[in-house]
């Protein structure tokens, strides 16, 4: 069995063109356009980038909520990109999802017990000691009172609802959990509690996380490695330490310059990079490097030649990749 719980190779997810009363389009929307990365067992990989860069689409395609246009999704040494029916259902029990919004992701008409128990019912699993006892144990694992099993979602706070979502994701003992911005809708103090809970559960159950987020300070805290995306493509992959210390891609450098530093002296002196222009449309991406329209280092080569994702130190613990003709550092 390989050390990789998930390996994505040249993944593409193109959506059919949408026409409106104002415009007609024949071009597919290239939400994800040739993405490759891997996640080791027990590892957290952060996936970051601007809104609309394809982060959530990657997460949902990996889970096979979308059928990929092309590419391979190798989970547990098996290519699941073309699986259907019962074969896919069996795989889905091992890949779970924590949703961004703890308010809309829980059925308001069902009790907490019924929400979590649904996982056992769908996959016809009968835990030793019964389903009710298993649900109570899961609630205790995520820091909730097991006696609240008959309460409804509206009786809990936002942080408690996200803990219910985490308990539901844990129910089937998955190997990989896709965390789709799981703390962005929570208060800052509650964010820290939920992130620490995810850390503890990872240590206890040897879970792997694909952690999708905007907040780079949260990503820095929880991730072992970070994948930076822009307009459906990967710009850079590196260990968290290397990425935050010495970003190689100009886009990564721009993202990191926006993260506030809790030291007024440093904050006043450091360079703040403000990107010009808007994110291009994934239905009509720029030729060459997709970041060339907003990059301060762009040349004619950048506008005409697509940069390959170059990997340095293959097999090394500090292996890193970047897709840029003129990298930083």
What does this structure look like?
- This protein has 329 residues and is an alpha/beta fold.
- The chain has a domain at 4-94 and 174-282: Rossmann fold, CATH 3.40.50.300.
- The chain is 31% helix and 21% strand.
- The protein contains eleven helices and twelve strands.
- It has helices at residues 55-62, 85-92, 112-122, 131-141, 158-170, 188-205, 216-222, 240-245, 250-257, 264-269, 300-304; strands at 4-15, 29-40, 44-48, 70-75, 78-79, 95-98, 176-180, 208-212, 225-230, 233-239, 310-312, 320-322.
- An eight-stranded mixed sheet has the order 6-7-8-3-9-10-12-11, sandwiched between helices. A four-stranded antiparallel sheet has the order 2-1-4-5, covered by helices on one side.
- The longest helix is centred in the middle third of the chain and has 18 residues, at 188-205.
- The protein starts with a strand and ends in a 7-residue tail after the last strand.
- The relative contact order is 0.14.
């Amino acid at each position: 069995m390989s050390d990789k719980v998930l390996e994505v190779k040249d993944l593409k997810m193109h959506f059919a063109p949408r026409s409106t009363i104002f415009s007609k389009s024949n071009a597919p929307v290239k939400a994800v356009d040739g993405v490759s990365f891997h996640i080791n067992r027990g590892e957290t990989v952060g996936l970051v980038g601007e809104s609309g860069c394809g982060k959530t689409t990657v997460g949902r395609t990996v889970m096979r909520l979308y059928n990929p246009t092309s590419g391979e999704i190798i989970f547990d040494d098996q290519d699941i990109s073309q699986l259907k029916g019962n074969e896919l259902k069996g795989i889905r029990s091992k890949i779970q999802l924590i949703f961004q919004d703890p308010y809309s992701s829980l059925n308001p008409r069902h009790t907490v017990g019924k929400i979590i128990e649904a996982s056992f019912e769908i996959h016809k699993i009968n835990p030793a000691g019964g389903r009710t006892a298993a649900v109570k144990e899961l609630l205790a694992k995520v820091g909730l009172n097991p006696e609240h099993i008959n309460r409804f979602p509206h009786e809990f706070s936002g942080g408690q609802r996200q803990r219910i979502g985490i308990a539901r994701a844990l129910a089937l003992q998955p190997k990989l959990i896709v965390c789709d911005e799981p703390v962005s809708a929570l208060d800052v103090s509650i964010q820290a509690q939920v992130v620490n809970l995810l850390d503890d559960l990872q240590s206890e159950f040897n879970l792997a996380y694909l952690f999708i987020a905007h907040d780079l300070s949260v990503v820095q805290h929880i991730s072992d490695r970070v994948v930076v995306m822009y307009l459906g493509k990967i710009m850079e992959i590196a260990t968290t330490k290397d990425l935050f210390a010495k970003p190689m891609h100009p886009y990564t450098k721009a993202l990191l310059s926006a993260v506030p530093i809790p030291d007024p002296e440093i904050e006043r002196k450091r360079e703040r990079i403000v990107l010009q222009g808007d994110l291009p449309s994934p239905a009509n991406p720029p030729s060459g490097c997709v970041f060339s329209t907003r990059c301060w280092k762009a040349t004619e080569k950048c506008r005409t030649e697509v940069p390959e994702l170059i990997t340095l130190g293959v097999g090394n613990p500090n292996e890193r990749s970047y897709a840029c003709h003129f990298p930083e550092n």
